[in-house]
Design a protein that fits this description.
By secondary structure, the chain is an alpha/beta fold. Helix content is 33%, strand content 24%. The protein has a single domain, classed as Rossmann fold. It has eight helices and nine strands. Strand 3 and strand 4 form a beta hairpin. Bound molecules: hypoxanthine (HPA).
Amino acid sequence: MDTRVKKIREAAAFIKENIGGKTPEVGIILGSGLGKLGDAIEAEAVIPYAKIPNFAKSTAIGHKGNFIFGKLAGKYVCAMQGRFHFYEGYAMDQVTLPVRVMAALGIKTLFVSNAAGGLNQSFSVGDLMIIRDHINLMPNPLIGPNLDAFGERFPDMTAAYDLDLIARAEKIAKKAKIPVRKGVYLGNTGPSYETPAEVRYYISIGADAVGMSTVPEVLVARHCGIPVFGMSVITNVSNTDNASTVLNDGDDVVRAADAAADRMCAIFQKLIETI
Ligand code: HPA
């Protein structure tokens, strides 16, 4: 057996044993802005990544490292409190291992969130953006021998972000009077923020927001055939001009994400109710 499949199955078997053999219906990656959604889960089991066989440790600021299993919006969910970023030095197999483990556990839909820099010049700090597509500028996590047990060699990415979930989220936001944007997320490795020249380039190729996560996890989920819904909280506005005096800063990003948390969580919670 492929050693990657063995690692996925070992991790999934360990978790299954710790959740009484249950099958989570929904997977959630609680990125920036969604941390509070973790508090809304009626937790039945909290499993630190450090205890799960083959998992790496999460080191990024504002991120914890646990799987939370429990009830949310009437569904038995599996939520990642903290994720692994490529910029931390993990291989893409490690970054995306939890998604494949959630797939092995049986999730039917994946929800993701992140903090992102606004590229679209009409965006402001605190805006919420439904991700309608992405541009991948990171190494593709599907490179290497294909994991046939999970999906096909050349997975289609035409509707990487589920169109029906997007439409439902827009309706929910409208009804709750929560303004939302919709746009293209560009995934970059980081950890450095973008230069103004890169920002102008990313705008020119059609990106609305830029961040350092999400794309690898979405590629792997789509490889497994799992529908995905994602949102970004715009935590800073990327500079197009070297003379700008507002510099990008990790603490500001965490603060802006926290400020948007209630709006973001409300949309996710209502959306999860509908599936
Ligand atoms: N660039 C990349 N990643 C980010 C940013 C940004 O401006 N803000 C939050 N995450």
